Structures are given as C-alpha cells and as structure tokens.
Amino acid sequence: MSKTMSGLTMVLSCMMVATWSSDVLATPYASGIQLNGTSSTFILNQDAASVDVVYDGGAVVVSLGALAKGSHTFDATLGTTWEIVCTGSTPAGWTQISDDSLTQSKYYSPRGVTVDANPMRSTFGRIFVSEGFGGAVSSGGRTTTDGLYIMTADQGDVTGQGDAAYAGAVDWTIGGSHSPMKVSLNRNDAAGQDYTVYIGDWSDPHSGIWTADATNPSAAFNELLDNTGRDGDGLVLTGTFTPAELHGSVPCGPWVEGTGASRTMYTVDEDVRLGNVLQYDIGATTSGYNTAPTDRTTDGPDIILNGRADVVRDEDGSWWIAQYRYDDSDSVPSLSHWADGASAPSWTSGQSTMRLNLAYGSIDIFDELDLLVMGTQDDKIYILDISDPANPVLVDVIPNPGERTHDVSFDAAGNVYAVNSSSETLRIYSPGGDWMATTGSDGTFTLVKVPEPTTLGVLALGGLVALRRRRA
Asked: Does residue 8 surpass a pLDDT of 80?
C-alpha cells in the first residue's frame, strides 16, 4: 500500500494549514467508510480541524469544514476516485481523548486491545477489546462478560452487542481471569483478505489460540491450535511416536503475517521454550492445527523468565520482546531486541541509560514513526523511539492512572489505546501536534506531520513531511 501523497493533496493541505486552530485534538482520521450514493458515510475517531473530500486527483474538492468525532456523510458519486483528508492541530504532548464515563470505555477486567490499521479492510479503524474476567464495573452503569467487544473508531457499538461480550460458544470462564488474554489482527495482509481476530489464552485449563470473524463475531469461534490431551499446566503435545510440544499458555496477541497458504503466526509461549519466538506455518488452516512450531529466535542467555510476555516484529524483520519485571535489569530485562534467527539479543533494557521498571509485558509497534509503546504496572505508559534499534530512547511517559495496563495498541494514525484492569478502562491517547491523515478509495492511508510554518510560503515550498523514516 502506498504511503505517498498525491501532488494535489499536498497543495490542498498547504491551503488548509493556514486556517487550523489549536483547540481541537489530533490525530483524526476517516474510517468505517460505507458507500451508498450521496448518503455514503465515514467515521471520525475524534474531532477534526477540517475535513475535505478530494475527487479524481483534485478535479472536485468539497470542504466539509471542522467536524466532531462520529459518523458523517459525503457524496461518493462526484468522482471515480476520492480521498478523505482530515487535519488536526494541538500542542504536542499526549492527551487522553477518550471518556472514562462512556459505556464503551468500561471493562471489569480487560486483558487485550487491538485496532484494525489496514485500510484495505472494511473493518479499518475498529477497536477490539478482550474481557478476561467479566463483572460489574465499579463506576457503575455496566456489567461485562468474558469474551470480545468490538467498537467503531469513535467507540460506537458497531454491532449492537450491548454489555455482553461475543464468546463464540467458547467457555472462557474455565480459564479464569486470563482467558481470553491479548488479541491481535493480521499485520501484513496486503490484499485486505484476512478478517480474523486472533485471541491468545494465558491459562492452564484453557490454553491456546482462538479466532473470531471480525465481520461476523456472533458466529462460533475456532480453536486454531489443537488442544487434544492438554495437561494440567496447559501444555499440548503433538505426534504419536515422538511427541513434540505444540503449545502451552499463550500470553501474547499472536503476530500474524500473510494470507492463504502463506499465512504465518508467531507467538511467545509460557510452556513451550519460554523466551523463544515460535513460528507456526498455519496457512489456510482454520482449526485444529497440530504441527509443532519452529524457533524464530532462541533465548540462549535465558533472559526471558516471566510468562507475562509480548512480542512484535519490526519492519526489518527483527523482534522486540517485552516481559513483566518489577525491577528492570541487565540479566533479566523488561525489553529486548533480537535479530531474526538470533540466539542472543542485540540490545536489552536494564542499562543505566534505559531502566523500564514495572513494565507489564505489553507492547506494540508503530513503524511509521519508529515507536514502541509499553504498558506498566505503575500508572504510566512508556513511549520509546526505536529509529536506532541499537540505542532506543525513552521519549515520553504518558500518565495512565491505575495499575496493570495489560495491553496497548497503536491505530493507523499513531494514537495509543490501553486497557487497564485496575482502573477498569479502555483509554485512548493522542500524541498532539499538527497532522494530516488521508484515507483513499483505493484502500490507501497516508499520515503526514506538518511542521509549524513561519509563513504559508514555506509550506508551498515543500514543508510537509511524510511519516516514513527509512533505516540505513
């Protein structure tokens, strides 16, 4: 998918910047697009300083002005192609843009969150939250159940599910408070064909990975990995004569790439070679996969010791592994970086320049800005710059009241989502600054940071900076 702006969009954005105000929140973008003639709709995740629809490369431009978060209409018949261009501007700095009192912000004991960042999919922008242990939220107004919740980008109830989670005919309660655990979506689905929600389970009696249909979550969930003969520790073996370890309790949201026969899933596992990144060549399998995984990385120095762990893949194919640590240390770090195929990390936290105490084993990556986000058990969220993987930098600490941030996620525009069982919330944070996000009818999405100009002329000479840093 191209992340390059059209020349006309750049010119249009130059005209818009002069009228931006500083009293709206960034970073807004358009998603949830439904085409229906002149009543076609899209959803803004938050208030936008301006929204313009650009048709056929600039033949027609319709300004919708400043718009509030929520659903809006546009006429998709005015051209063969179109782009919805959203701008936002605030002082730089992380700001909570969600409301804790909103029904869809309340969860008794949430364990996972992910956002569809693939503009090729019709579910682009939707938010998925897993509830590991349902109950009455202390702030009142809602009682949740174990399973999966789905929202539009503005936290609307997209499927009308109300307070009951989608459980997929699965008995989640037997797994306790970590069943289900973290959730994820296919991160390299170029054609936008994989509408699967991947659900990890970090419990002994119910260990494994389940999948749900993002477009039909009321259907039965599939048991992706075979669970025949699961033992009391959650371990499942495969093979009749020479049994091999298939899986155990899975604390992470699986990292999935590719589609069809080339679909591959990666996990870290509490019971199967803890510390290694495991590779499952699942292909088109939908349930009962029973081929033992291979090792993508091998924890030779034995530094990953906590089962509360998470893994993401960098755009160069390397891996970042986070684990829960009360005290970060060189020997057992909260965060480590691994080259693909490595048997030892290339970098670890715990050093004098980077101590990530109380990291809670939750992590996500935003390639476009070379950022990592980490949840903690200490009322805050870490933001790290990983543009130089050999020397990551802690660039921001977001106050996030409440211990136990179980999971974190970026959306396509760089906003951060966090679920916390202590505060019983899903919270969303915006990075602030001046941004322009473009959603195209061809399934492209472009995010551009706009530096503060001294004059409009500076912008006209090329002041817009596309968010794609290439590493050497």
From this structure: no
